[in-house]
Amino acid sequence: MYDKLDFIQEKYGELSQKVSDPAVIADQALWQKHMKEMAEMEPVVNKYREYKKAVEDLAGTKELLGESGVDEELREMAKAELSELEERTEQLSREMQVLLLPKDPNDEKNVILEVRAGTGGEEAALFAGDLLRMYIRYAERRNWKTEVIDANETGIGGVKEAVVLIKGRGAYSRLKYESGVHRVQRVPETESSGRIHTSAATVAVLPEIDDVEVDLDPNDVRVDVYRASGNGGQCVNTTDSAVRLTHVPTGIVVTCQDEKSQLKNKDKAFKVLRARLYDAKLQEQNKEISEARKSQVGSGDRSERIRTYNFPQGRVSDHRIGLTLYKLDYFLDGDLDEIIEGLITSDQAEKMKNF
């Protein structure tokens, strides 16, 4: 590990000199490339410098304690400092290991988040609507932007399915753990006997993919246009603005009717199609590689129940890390960070086993 850290520090120093070179500055593309590399290395380099300083201080304290003739008060202070420095170096060592873990290339990308009602009829659609609002609130808390691409709403506030684009730095790195089956236990508004029902909704979190990352032949895509349906808007049912894309080789279908412009709907629909094709490719790769190389928390299987929302008890339980919080109202209002941080820590610990 330390050989790698020395190499990164040396490389960082070389790049620091290069970005000050007038010839490199004149080539903006090259300068930006070097600056990006430095930005990626900087957290590791800074942490390594902290670690080396702590190790140096630790050695100095040990040397002081080994000397004869040191007065008792100074010796006691050195002993207390020794304990703190040992704990500090261990902590910094763990933090460096985390920083050196392989990065998910999609972590900094925007997210295409899909929510679909599962088993449970109208109650499942209402729960899917709750989840959609929860993720939009979470995005607002982190100052991310959201765009609803498509939504199939029910008459009483539920959602059969919805697709939303979430734009923000690190959006995928935090939301990728939300893919899976979400279960709800509560008394539906339509239930007169007060009996608790169990329903479910599925969530899929896909990174927004650039054109160059997916081999998408336009000839493989059938484009249909039709009149939008739903609430509001002068263009609803008056113009053929809605778009349906069908990827013939895979059978994947994407619809978008959020915009009044057919061109904008088509552009958004292609974003979703590229993301789904990319995700399908990743799923296929995950079948071919060993479990030890998977970096997802849990198996990554979307049929797996990942979380339960229990309304009578006011709790939310994430089954992958065994964490239960009794603040369901806050959670549904977008206060997700405690569970997401737990999932990130669990993921890092799993990767550390193979570090």
Secondary structure elements and pairings:
Elements: H1 2-18, H2 22-26, H3 28-66, H4 72-100, E1 111-117, H5 121-141, E2 145-153, E3 159-167, H6 171-175, E4 180-186, E5 197-207, E6 221-226, E7 242-247, E8 252-256, H7 262-288, E9 305-310, E10 315-318, E11 323-325, H8 328-332, H9 337-353
Parallel strand pairs: 4-9
Antiparallel strand pairs: 1-3, 1-5, 2-3, 4-5, 6-7, 7-8, 9-10, 10-11
If you had to describe this structure to a student in words, what would you say it looks like?
This protein is an alpha+beta fold and 355 residues long. The protein is 46% helix and 21% strand. It contains nine helices and eleven strands. The protein has an eight-stranded mixed beta sheet. Strands 6-7-8 form a three-stranded antiparallel beta sheet, covered by helices on one side. Strand 10 and strand 11 form a beta hairpin. Helix 3 (28-66) runs antiparallel to helix 4. It is flat, with a radius of gyration of 26 Å. It starts with a helix and ends with a helix. The model is unreliable at 231-237 and 289-303 (pLDDT under 50).
Number of strands: 11
Whole-number radius of gyration?
26 Å
Percent helix: 40-55%
What's the shape? flat
The pLDDT mean sits at: 83
The arrangement of helices and strands along the chain is HHHHEHEEHEEEEEHEEEHH
Strand order in space, largest sheet: 2-3-1-5-4-9-10-11
Distance between the termini: 9 Å
| Computed structural class | alpha+beta
Ranges where pLDDT stays below 50 over 5 or more residues in a row are 231-237, 289-303
Number of helices: 9
Amount of beta strand: 15-25%
Largest sheet: 8 strands, mixed
